[in-house]
Design brief:
The protein has 336 residues and is an alpha+beta fold. The protein is built from 11 helices and 10 strands. The strands form 2 sheets. It has a 7-stranded mixed β-sheet with strand order 1-5-6-10-9-8-7, with helices on both faces. It has a 3-stranded antiparallel β-sheet with strand order 2-4-3. 30% of the residues are buried. The structure holds phenylalanine.
Length: 336
């Protein structure tokens, strides 16, 4: 290409760019002239074939062409300028992504771990498939106890069962550790219940266990559960103990929270009593210490256990336990 030809090609290219009707046409011209395989880079590559004495002037002319093409493209909103999102409306609101939320049962479990974490409790875990010793025998359950019945428990043979409570984690924890012990154990439990608004064959419990070589009393248990009630259900919620029986605690109590809705005055949720039953608890029976190799003369402690569904239902006002398992977003999104 001679210098004259170059000037002619340049004039044509600038005219074409000036006449380009839309962004696509501008982009096509960019590719044609300064794209990787465009005509201007091709000229630069071919520079070695230009006679030596003409090379400086020719090189200058090519560079000038390139600069003018770039300026012309930019003035049409193309070239390097096109790489910036000039078409975007920067005042548009951001895109909304629907984030999921924690399931109410997970929230109760995590909140419980946080509250007891403040009191020095750690989280212990145990298997859902248990043996007779951990689920019943070591917990001082007599062989004739109805909970062991085939119609109340899911058995696999004579020794293996789906745990009916989280209490076997007490046994596992004590067998593997020395006092002092402070654990909570959340997990799934199984009973052969027919499902209705308040029962499910598979539900969740949270066990608590404190064992120490210094004397532990029922007053300690009560203060810890009172703190838990206040943190979980809100200011002013208190606890009361009613005498009860569990094979593995002595004395045993049932634990009620004062009704967080009517503040104890009586309403539909607490069945006009002002109290809601939430947990079983008591002082660890000395026989249980015997089963795990602790000296009942040297250690004492308390244990408690409550249903996660029960807490979730009263805390969030959920009338039917089945809603917690159906994964219906119309329900779940109300609690998000
Ligand atoms: N495991 C008992 C139940 O399922 C609850 C409980 C736990 C009671 C710990 C006392 C101590 O009913």
């Amino acid at each position: 290409m001679t210098l004259a030809e170059l000037e002619k090609a340049k004039a044509e290219s600038l005219a074409e760019i000036a006449a380009a009707a839309d962004a696509a046409a501008v982009e096509a011209l960019r590719v044609r002239y300064i794209g990787r395989n465009g005509s201007i880079p091709a000229l630069i590559k071919a520079m070695k074939d230009v006679p030596k004495e003409e090379r400086p002037a020719f090189g200058k002319a090519v560079q000038a062409w390139r600069a003018e093409v770039e300026a012309a493209l930019a003035s049409k909103g193309g070239g390097a300028a096109a790489e910036k999102p000039v078409d975007a409306d920067l005042t548009l609101p951001g895109r909304w992504f629907a984030l999921g939320a924690k399931h109410p049962l997970s929230r109760v479990i995590e909140e419980t771990a946080r509250i007891f974490g403040h009191l020095g409790f750690t989280v212990a875990d145990g298997p859902e498939l248990e043996n007779r010793f951990n689920n019943f025998t070591a917990l001082n359950t007599p062989p004739h106890h109805p909970s062991m019945d085939r119609s109340d428990t899911f058995w696999f043979g004579d020794d293996t069962l789906l745990r009916t409570q989280t209490s076997p984690v007490q046994i596992r924890t004590m067998m593997e550790n020395k006092p002092p012990i402070r654990v909570i154990c959340p997990g799934r439990t199984y009973r052969r219940d027919t499902t209705d608004a308040t029962h499910s064959a598979n539900f969740h419990q949270i066990e608590g266990l404190y064992v120490d070589t210094k004397p532990v009393s029922l007053a300690d248990l009560k203060s810890v559960l009172a703190y838990f009630a206040h943190e979980m259900m809100g200011d002013g919620v208190t606890v009361r103990f009613r005498p009860h029986f569990f094979p593995f605690t002595e004395p045993s109590v049932e634990v009620d929270f004062s009704c967080h809705l009517c503040k104890g005055k009586g309403c539909r949720v607490c069945k006009e009593s002002g109290w809601i039953e939430v947990a079983g608890a008591g002082m660890v029976d000395p026989r249980v210490f015997g089963h795990v190799g602790y000296d009942p003369e040297k250690v004492s402690g308390y244990a408690f256990g409550f249903g996660v569904e029960r807490i979730a239902m009263i805390k969030y006002g959920i009338p039917d336990i089945r809603w917690l398992y159906e994964n219906d977003v119309r329900f779940l999104s109300q609690l998000a």
